[in-house]
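Hi L., both proteins are below.
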Amino acid sequence: MKKLVLLLLCVTTLGLVSCKKDTIVNENTPNYTFYTSIPTSRWVATTDSEGSYYYADITNQEIERYEDDGTIVSFQRFNDNGYDALPFTLGMVRYSYTSYPGRIRVYLQDQYNQNILPARPTSEISARVVIVASSSN
C-alpha cells in the first residue's frame, strides 16, 4: 500500500511539474544587409605563401559596428538573379572571403593550381553582404 501511495505521489508530482519552452528573440541586435558591386578595376593580383590570386576589398561603415559578429557574403549568379554564398567554385575559379575589422576581402584563386592566377573577372560582380548580429554577455 505504501509503495502504491508513493508511486501515485511521484506520478502526480511529475504531472504537476511541467517544463515551459521559452523562445528568446533578441530584438535589440538586428542583422544588417547591404548590396555592393565590385568593378573589374578593383581586383588586385598578388602572389604570397598562399599562391597567386586576385583580391578585392568590400568596405562599409556598418562592418566596423558588427566587428565581432558573423558575416555572410554572396555573389549574384552570373546567369540569373539568384545569389550564391561564398565560398563556392565556378568553373576553374574558387571564390572565398575573409572578414576583417572594417572590411571584407574577397579572393579568387585557381581551383586546381594555387600558383596560377585565375581568369580575371571581365564584368562587375554584384555582392550581397549580410552581417549577422550576435550579443555577448
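That was the first. Here is the second:
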Amino acid sequence: MRVTRQVMPNPRRDDLPTGGEGGPDAKRPGRVGIRTCVACRQEAGKGTLVRVVRDPSGRAAIDPGGHARGRGAYLHRDPSCIEIARKKKALERALKAVVSPEVWVQLGV
C-alpha cells in the first residue's frame, strides 16, 4: 500500500510586512537596511550614511559601495556627526582600529 503525502500551502503571505530586515524578504524592492550612526546613535537608512571599514590588514578606509569585506561602522555625512565621532573616538572604538588622518580628511573634517 502506497501512502502519498499532501503538500501543505506556504503559510507565509508575501503581501504582509515582515518583522525584520534580514531573511527571505531582505531583497524585496523597497526594503532599506537600517543602520546606526556611531556618533549620534540615531538610526538611518544605509544610503544616508557613509560606511567606514576596517580591512583585513587592520587599516580603516571609507567604503563608498558599502560592500567591502571587514568590520564596518556607519556615520552620518553631517559635519557635526563627523566631529563628534572624532572627538569621542567613536570610529576607533567601533572598528577596534586606529583611524588615520587621511580618512578624516576624506570624511571632510
